[in-house]
Design a protein that fits this description.
The chain has about 325 residues and is mostly helical. The protein has 9 helices and 2 strands, in the order H-H-H-H-H-H-H-H-E-E-H.
Length: about 325
Amino acid sequence: MLSSFNKAYLAVVLLAVVVLFIPVPDKTPYMIGSCAGRMMGLALLPCFFAWVAWRLSKEKKPVASVTFNVVLTLAVLGQVGQIAWRIQESKAMDDLQASQAEMRKRIAEGDIDQAELGAMAQQHADKIESTFEELSETATGDEEKRFYGAMDAFVEETRANGHRWNTSFEAVCEPRVLDYSLLTTEAEYAAQRAILNKYVSETQRYLAYHGSMLATLQAKLDEAGAHGGRAQGAITGARRTYELQKPVFVPLMETHVKYGQTMLAILDLLEKNGGRWAVGDGELVFEDDATSTAYNGLIEDLGQCEESINSLQGKLLELR
């Protein structure tokens, strides 16, 4: 039914698929199976249509041969876009891994300050989101489009929650908070207390969100209808990262809560004993030992929280 040219044409096409697959670095079982399935489809689909044409033409070999060539050519044109996109996907993943490796290297070398590290982490997060968004828009297959669309939505939501918490923490770091010279009116006490209460509540909310991240990711994938190998790999990778970071992230956020609550306790102490302290030479001067002792105890707790936060934050960054 098939001519020698048909067979040679098919052999060249299958060889081209293998050659294009060789440079792909992430040869996971899913990727290998996908490549094998693509090759099988390229071989069987033209044969099926050629056989149908051969039977309908009362077994005329030229009709079957032409049909085979036309169908195989159309199939190849459809596969070229997918193969090119998979190469793009692999390169994008390599770029993300290189970005993460550079950040870990800088942390290990210890030649980076917190501001620079924060900027680098922000840049890496931006790269992740833009990569997922681009892959979602350029994907040639429905499964890939659904998967990267879900991942883009998940990353966007996660970053929004992180930004929301970070904003509340930055507000606490403003000079106004616990500037004792400003604590002269009830309105100022209320304003600083509102900043600290928001910080505490946002930290608790962010901690709860982190605990539900795996379920959130699964829900995003299910909602998008992404159930293939990529989705399974994403869940496995996210679970591994979550279990690795949880022993550090949870106590870090709990210490942030204690930090905020301790500052609130300082405000309560000062407001309750408003006539027993004053600011002199940039320091608090107390009229009685009881208030001074209580204040010093809270300041000691605050210092311990700061030490724990800095230590845990460093460990968390090393795990990224």
